[in-house]
Amino acid sequence: MKRPKPRKILIVGYGNPLRSDDGFGWQASQDLAVALAGREVEVITCHQLTPELAEPLSRCALAIFLDAAARGSPGQMHCCNITPTPPSPEAFTHNCTPAHLLASAHELYGSRPRGLSITVSAETFAFGDQLSPAVAAALPKVKDQVNRLVNQATAGPAAPAGTRSGNRPSGRREK
Question: What domain count does the chain have?
């Protein structure tokens, strides 16, 4: 059976929308699903990463993972490449990461999508259905960054695998 042609981009937003800033990935992916409708983009919104995501990853050229981060200054955006890393068998069911999923997409389906992680440092993970002001303020920047990545990926070849992209609000320069 012939596999369908991969879509160019898969966006996976994850987190708990009832734990304040942990809902960042959820909210960002929901907003992007509307903004990118009709483009060569598939958006998945979920509470957590699971092994089943390896299959849709195998059908894309670029995967963008959106999540809240526990470290850093609240509202700080981080964008970096993901290196596929095979999980240990016992860890895979309890601690699924974007790197594990990319490795699984290759092992199970022979696919090697490029992976990017975009996170925003959270202020709070307390019970609540609203993002903190710092994380809410970062949401438009993240959506702009994803739009730029989508435009680049659909316009021509992707950036070399060793590059980093994204705004670095900390003022540090890339090395």
Answer: 1
What would the pLDDT profile of 77-128 be if each residue is shown by its tens digit?
999 999 999 877 665 555 799 999 999 999 999 999 999 999 999 999 999 9
DSSP H helices in the chain? 24-35, 54-58, 98-109, 133-155
The domain containing residue 103 runs over which residues? 7-155
CA distance between the termini of the chain = 45
How far is CA 57 from each of CA 65, 68, 83, 119, 125, rounded to the nearest angstrom? 11, 21, 14, 19, 28
Q: Which of 115, 139, 4, 138 is CA-nearest to residue 54?
A: 115
